[in-house]
Specification:
By secondary structure, the chain is mainly β. The chain contains no helices and four strands. About 0% of the residues lie in helices and about 35% in strands.
Length: about 70
């Protein structure tokens, strides 16, 4: 079973990644800096999901680790 890492970004920012994108550890995942908070990938991997959570007004990005 593969662990996924979930990153939640306030919806005042826009995601800078799409499903299927490869990301590096430390790569910025949002396009803007309106909140002044950095949202970076905690791992190198592949973006598995990008969705909007209207209840929390957040984008939810799931990243699966790179396969060795």
């Amino acid at each position: 079973m593969t662990d996924r890492y979930v990153i939640r970004i306030d919806a005042t920012e826009s995601p800078a990644v799409r499903v299927g994108d490869s990301v590096r550890k430390g790569q910025n995942l949002c396009a803007g800096t309106k909140t002044g908070i950095s949202h970076v990938s905690p791992i190198a991997g592949v973006v598995e999901e990008v969705r909007f959570d209207p209840a929390q007004h957040e984008f939810v990005i799931s990243v699966s680790p790179e396969k060795a």
